Amino acid sequence: MDESPNGKLRPRVAGSEGGPSFIDVFAGCGGLSLGLSNAGWKGRFAIEKNADAFGTLAENLVSDHASRFTWPDWLPKRQLTTSTLLKKYGYQLSQLEGKVTLMAGGPPCQGFSLAGRRLHSDPRNSLFRQYLKIVQRVKPTFLVLENVQGFAFPFRKNPKGHGATLPYSSMVTERLKQLGYVVFSELVSLSDYGVPQTRRRFILIAILEGSPALDKLNGDSPFDLLRERRAALLQAKGLRIDSPVSVKEAIGDLETAGKTLRECQDPGSRRFKEIVYATDAEKDSEFIRLMRKDHGQAPTSIRLPRHKPETIKQFQTILDTCKRGQTLHKTDRTRLNIKKQALTPLDPNRPAATVTTLPDDMVHYSEPRILTVRENARLQTFPDWFTFSGKYTTGGKDRKRDCPRYTQVGNAVPPLFAEFIGTILKDLHSGE
Questions:
Q1: Quick one: average pLDDT of 155-159?
Q2: How far is CA 352 from the centre of its chain?
Q3: Up-side HSE of residue 160: CA atoms within 13 Å toward CB?
Q4: Given a cut of 80, is residue 371 above it in pLDDT?
Q5: How far apart are CA 205 and CA 421, in angstroms?
Q6: CATH code, domain with 372
Q7: Which of 39, 64, 147, 375 could be joined to 422 by an S-S link, Cβ 3.0–4.6 Å?
Q8: Quick check: 35 pLDDT over 90?
Q9: What is the pLDDT, as a whole number, of residue 78?
């Protein structure tokens, strides 16, 4: 175990002293980086433009007491855009050609979300061109790209023109083939891999032509290997293979029922309450034990929301009268005078709805409140030792600038799934 300056213990990383290397582009708060490093990969550097998200990544994965990166001297350890990386450090990137094993990254997904406007003109979609320019400079052996499932669906609300209705997945795949990659992609249900939410994601894995890894596949895809090894991967983590992890199995120890409440310990949160956390080894699920592994302290970011009385009453009515585990039907929204389009009361015995950047998209399964940041982080498979920095929420004009804790968690790639992908690719790489 390593001890950070604030006294918190952080687990050492198996295999972090050597092994294959990766860079993480559009890294967010570090879900992909955490998972890959847990699988034995060593980070070179990570690129994230938002200061809050990078602060979380740096504290957990880059700081001297927790380093999972070898970070080059030429690159500052701070937030940075991919545009600045290409303009200011293009030469250094080119010098990495053939020296980086894997490039991971999930460019911002809001422009591709099925819940959004889905316009080709959305400036966030152009970030894929920057992603491809970095690929062209570095030429890693492997690429891992994650995005919402809408990334694989055609755009239909766009001006006429060449490629206007093609999904971005097709465009990116074609360009990667031009750059010399063999491309594999699928829509994956992450609940099949220990993630306790109904989260479907577009996953792309590309392998450089001529790599021995392609020979090892022998005509199969990396996703075939992932499915073949699914049971072994889950069992190695102590998780069952015949049914997904339920939301209660993920966050049941964080309920307020039977707990003492105290003033929230986070700076600036004195008006809020949090539970006095206590473990119960006999009641804790295997998933909770996995999230608590190597962490003997109380989890952080457990600040409870301060709902208005009318909000609490409405949430209780939802829990009492609406079907659990499903987004509220239009008839229920009309009956309860709810304008919000996506609101799901959780079912304790099923996986949660997809964790998003909006904390009020879900109602706790037994308490009339939204989930805490830590509860969302559990659903995303972040271990309890992983801390989050910055504001909890934001609003108004600050929405375009800030990346509060709820947003960081919602945007992340679940580390457990990233670890499974990393394990498969590490095995394909071994012996090259």
A1: 53
A2: 15
A3: 0
A4: yes
A5: 9
A6: 3.90.120
A7: 39
A8: yes
A9: 97
Residue 403, in any domain of the structure: no
For residues 218 and 300, state if they share a domain.
Answer: no
Q: Got the DSSP string for 66-123?
A: G--B---TTS-SS---HHHHHHHHHHHHHTTTTT-SEEEE----GGG-TTS---TT-G
Q: Are residues 265 and 211 in the same domain?
A: no
How many domains, the chain? 2
Residue 264 corresponds to which tokens in the numbers above? 């929230």
Structure token digits, residue 321: 């009268």
How far is Cα 142 from Cα 102, in angstroms, rounded to an integer? Answer: 5
> 232: which residues sit within 8 A by CB, 6+ positions away?
none
Q: What is the DSSP annotation of 149-213?
A: GGGGS---SS-SSTTTTS-HHHHHHHHHHHTTEEEEEEEEEGGGGT-SB--EEEEEEEEETT-HH
| Owning domain of residue 52 | 2-240+414-429
- 57 with 170, same domain? yes
Separation CA 117–CA 114 (nearest Å):
8
Identify the residue whose tokens are 């001529």. 210
Question: pLDDT over 70 for what percent of the chain?
Answer: 87
Q: Are 161 and 305 within one domain?
A: no
My answer on whether 203 and 311 are in the same domain is no
User: In Å, how far are 227, 330, 410 from 220, measured between CA atoms?
Assistant: 11, 44, 32
Residues 345 and 262 in one domain: yes
The enclosing domain of 148 has a CATH number of: 3.40.50.150
Other CB atoms within 10 Å distance of the CB of residue 366: 14
What single-letter amino acid sits at 22? Answer: F
Q: What is the pLDDT of residues 105-124, one digit of tens each?
A: 877 755 444 444 445 445 55
- Global pTM reads 0.90
Does 346 lie in the same domain as 384?
yes
Closest CA to 382 of 19, 57, 14, 47: 57
Residue 146, helix vs strand vs coil: strand
Answer yes or no: is 406 within a domain.
Answer: no
Residue 398 within a domain: no
